[in-house]
């Protein structure tokens, strides 16, 4: 039996979403099979997957997902967003940095180039904000949270333009605008996730700096290998949640120096 014949299509509940790609909202001319056709036996054997969905998608999103083995819609949606962010990174930067009103003073050739970037970046931004839709699958209705929106929201404030939203977030959270743009692209076009990831990385970087500084002093005092001590401290911090660097070093001292 043809494996494709064992999959059932999903149908958009809202007429406005008929014929739209589930992942980005563009015109759907292809189908994405969830779980992927070539992995279906594996998922059914090891995870007991009991669904086989045929999902409307556009040519580009289908291309993004060709080699992806994620077995559910949510994970595949996140992957598509990151692929769009990566592919249209330059256009999204232009869109977040320029406004059509800023182009009057530019030369014709540069104006044409920037204008094209703004247009492409706006399209990519709209695709990033599209977040699936409510659908019916084998007689069962699945309702999305309807997160599709026409504006960006930061701390309760709503913005029509990506640039304004990023600038507001940059000022509010005291994050360099260029760093925030990088995180926005890395997280698949989600400002809230970009901010959270930035602070998580900053916290990790600060912890790494403190570990290195305190381990240098510890190793000099007790004639220990800095590489070993740093690695052990990180292991202890992960293993013993809530304990300090000092506690970890004291444990190493008791176990390795005087033990």
From TrEMBL:
Protein's recorded name: Uncharacterized protein
Organism of this sequence: Pseudomonas fluorescens
